[in-house]
Amino acid sequence: NTMIYPAQHEEVIAVTSVGKSLVRSLFSSTGPLNDFAAPGEEIYSTYLNGQYATYQGTSLAAPHITGLFAILMEQFPYLDNAGLYEAMKRYTKDLGQVDFDELYGFGLPQFQQSIHTTELTEKNAEARKSLEAGIAAFIKNPTAEQYAIVLEKLNSIRDVEFKATNRKLLD
User: Fold this and answer.
1) Which residue, 17, 42, 77, 119, is most buried by CB atoms nearer than 10 A?
2) CA 31 to chain centre
3) Global pTM value
4) Is 123 left (phi over 0), alpha (psi -120 to 50) or beta?
């Protein structure tokens, strides 16, 4: 286990770097907390004074995973963090041992429309129904304990519906 902090924090998504051949980069850490793999070698990026340069590192691999999570959050807005994590696992290509290993985590996410999309759309709809049922129950029998939770859920619904309305207006 060569992982260091912040990747060792359980709540952090640890990303290992791979090159063009999809082999783990020599500089990339290994360990039981590795979650996913992403490109981290020969990444062309911005540099000082308007220049560009080629870099390598897990800090360059992590934004790939962040971007894919953003896509999942947009497509499945009612899934919670655990649901989004499980969704990401469904879109991965195994690079090492089947399912999970300490070199590549669950593998390289390759987000594309697939059979998983239909299943995740159904889970998203179930999560929305559950959210709405919880709010309806609170409205019938409000308690001080539930107030903060319901307020957070209402804000979540408002944000999702606001984004959907804006997308329709921009189309």
Assistant:
1) 17
2) 20
3) 0.70
4) alpha
Q: Are 135 and 153 in contact (CB under 8 A)?
A: yes
Structure tokens at 17: 């770097």
- What's the mean pLDDT when you consider all of the chain? 83
Which has the closest alpha carbon to 121: 94, 163, 90, 93? Answer: 90
Query: 104: pLDDT confidence band, cut at 50, 70 and 90?
Result: very high
Q: Distances in Å between the alpha carbon of 58 and those of 17, 18, 40, 131, 169?
A: 5, 9, 6, 36, 38
Burial class (CB in 10 A: 0-12, 13-18, 19+), 19: middle
4 pLDDT band, cuts 50/70/90, is confident
